[in-house]
Specification:
Chain lengths: ~240, ~100, ~300
């Protein structure tokens, strides 16, 4: 789904979202609430300039609209892979974006993510994965690496990876895998505005993804291991 | 991967149970060795998980030598190996057992 | 200090680094190797697992003050983050919320997400990110030490810059996509990963220090890392709107000032450093004296 169509379906009461290059931001109206929107289009690679602009849009919401919910609509093929981005410290720009989203959360802004196109590695990590809850459209694509590339790097035969990915959600691309592992709270389909309104009203309780992954049997160790390290008595 | 297991009898029990010792890293051409006190009725048990398949007889020979140098009892030794040479395996086991027994007779 | 008295951080394993860094005898490991909490995913892919899943976590004292510490082992799968590895880091950080130590030390050495369990690793890194920020928001400093053989890349490169300060040696490396990844994906003309001089002046400790990505640059000596970490325990975390606006202005300034630079040498020259091509060969004390007041 393209971003314009998506925005119309999320905000049937209207929005003033403006596009600038591969980035967009603005405000939509959902069931009487104003919702700040920050997103990208065209599977944008997230480089230093884009991370910086998105962070600026988030800071602007925190400064000018205290408490206003933020919806991230990030379509990304991942971090931009270039010598120049590394030279200028792209990890610092990604971290800055993440810090701004966390600041918004701590200042009482609900932060939601909706993956409508692609979500890959660093671009996903520094944006929608910092949301209180992240959702996805059923035809969205979430991955770290596709299986042929993974087979080359790990030297594990592609047939073996393909075979295992039928039963394990742990390494293969796919929205359903991220759903089972708890990183995607739910898939949105049909009445997107209604689902957004529900997500804006749903109670939140910290980072619930480990518990969700355990409940859905897609990530069975993370919750238990983290709890043990947090609480085990030490001699 | 291949699992191997070895057991030795006739070793000397240590006067007191030392803390668990871990040496080495699970990296290419290397291995990690963990040595723990264990109530094994006087046996020293060695469990190996190795990425290199088909070297059972060589492991047997190396382990025989190690036990001859360090005849311990009631000890569990666990190894994760990524194709280390017999010399490296011997060295790591010596390091681990020296640290574990810590000068105890 | 003489060379004979220095002890290389770079050459050490994760466990050796902890022993050298912390007060003698003070380290207590949490979920130690004898608990055998290993990755179940590696076994299914016929890949050997490590008893600690490549990260050592525990509590200790540093200069008599309580700290929580984690050390990643680059020798095991490049220090990459899998489900268990990541959950140990997250659990340790959350423990800090309960125990309120003087600080949390992260001895990072990681290529990022472990591909054998890529989805679990990516999610785990995002949980670590949130946990780091929660600890800092609670007023507890999180300090990163980066001087290992494998550097710090991928998601851990982002994690590092979420923390209060990064302490690096010249040998440390810090970035997002490693040079090999960029070369493989974009071609050797984009980034020649075999050009060691290029790699070091792009992602190495000296350039990171000049850019302000690393707060402190130390020699490759574990005692120097210890002293730097100890001094940073008194750092008060600030994640306020004002602090992030200041960071935003600084990052915007970096884009304006250096956005057209194509090599670290261009940046160093623009910082006003005479003969920038000399910087890579200077030892750390001479380098620090040379660049005083020249950092971005």
């Amino acid at each position: 789904m393209d971003a314009q169509t998506l925005l119309k379906r999320l905000f049937p009461d209207g929005h003033d979202v403006a596009f600038a290059g591969d980035c967009f931001s603005g405000t939509g109206r959902c069931c009487g609430n104003d919702v700040a929107v920050v997103g990208t289009i065209d599977n944008a690679p997230i480089g230093i300039e884009l991370a910086y602009r998105m962070a600026g849009a988030v800071l602007d919401v925190v400064r000018r609209h205290p408490g206003r919910p933020i919806l991230l609509l990030v379509d990304t093929q991942g971090q931009r892979l270039s010598h120049r981005d590394e030279l200028l410290g792209i990890n610092g720009y990604m971290a800055h974006l993440a810090k701004c989203l966390d600041l918004a959360r701590r200042n009482g802004h609900r932060v939601l993510g909706l993956v409508y196109g692609q979500a890959v590695s660093g671009g996903f990590l520094a944006s929608s994965m910092l949301a209180d809850r992240c959702y996805a459209l059923p035809d969205a694509e979430i991955r770290v690496m596709n299986l042929p590339a993974m087979a080359r790097v790990t030297k594990i035969p592609l047939e073996r990876l393909t075979e295992l990915s039928a039963s394990s959600p742990v390494f293969a691309p796919g929205v359903d895998n991220y759903l089972r592992m708890g990183a995607i709270a739910a898939l949105w389909d049909g009445d997107l505005a209604g689902q957004l309104a529900e997500a804006l009203a749903a109670p939140l309780d910290g980072d619930e993804r480990r518990a969700l992954g355990e409940e859905r049997r897609g990530r069975t160790l993370a919750r238990q291991v983290a709890d043990r390290v947090r609480r085990d008595a030490v001699a | 991967m291949e699992s191997l297991s070895f057991e030795y009898r006739g070793g000397r029990p240590l006067p007191s149970a030392p803390p668990v010792t871990l040496v080495g890293v699970v990296g290419s051409g290397n291995l990690e060795v963990m040595v723990e006190p264990a109530d094994l009725g006087g046996v020293c048990r060695i469990e190996v998980l190795t990425a290199a398949v088909g070297f059972g007889p060589i492991w047997q020979a190396v382990m025989d030598d190690v036990f001859a140098r360090h005849p311990v009892a009631d000890v569990r030794i666990s190894i994760n190996d990524v194709g280390a040479t017999p010399a490296v395996v011997s060295l790591r086991l010596d390091q681990a057992l020296d640290a574990f027994t810590g000068g105890q007779p | 200090m003489t060379d004979a008295a220095t002890h290389s951080y770079y050459e050490d394993s994760a466990r050796e680094r902890l022993l050298g860094l912390l007060d003698p005898g003070s380290f207590r490991e949490i979920l130690p190797p004898s608990e055998r909490v290993v990755s179940p995913h590696l076994r299914r892919l016929d890949t050997p697992a490590a008893f600690d899943d490549g990260v050592v976590v525990g509590k200790a004292t540093l200069g008599g003050r309580p700290v929580l510490v984690a050390a990643q082992e680059g020798g095991f799968m490049g220090g990459a983050v899998g489900e268990v590895h990541g959950a140990k880091l997250t659990g340790l950080l959350e423990r800090a919320l309960d125990e309120r130590p003087a600080g949390v030390l992260l001895l990072v050495e990681s290529g990022g997400v472990r591909l054998h369990e890529a989805n679990a690793g990516l999610i785990a890194v995002s949980e670590v990110m949130r946990a780091v920020l929660a600890v800092r928001a609670a007023g507890i400093p999180v300090i990163v030490l980066d001087g290992g053989q494998f550097g710090c890349f991928g998601g851990m490169g982002i994690v590092s810059r979420l923390c209060d300060a990064v302490v690096m040696s010249e040998e440390g490396r810090l970035g997002l996509s490693g040079p090999e990844v960029i070369e493989t994906t974009m071609g050797v003309e984009e980034f020649d990963s075999r050009d060691r001089a290029l790699v070091w002046r792009t992602v190495g400790g000296k350039h990171r220090y000049l850019l302000g990505e690393a707060a402190v640059l130390v020699e490759d000596d574990i005692a120097a890392f210890r002293a730097a970490a100890l001094a940073l325990l008194d750092h008060a975390p600030d994640l306020s709107l004002a602090a992030l606006e200041a960071e935003h202005a600084a990052l915007g300034g970096r884009l304006e000032r250096f956005g057209d630079c194509r090599d670290a040498l261009d940046i160093w020259a623009r910082l006003g450093i005479a003969e920038p091509e000399r910087l890579p060969i200077l030892d750390t004390p001479t380098f620090l004296a040379t660049v005083t007041d020249k950092r971005a």
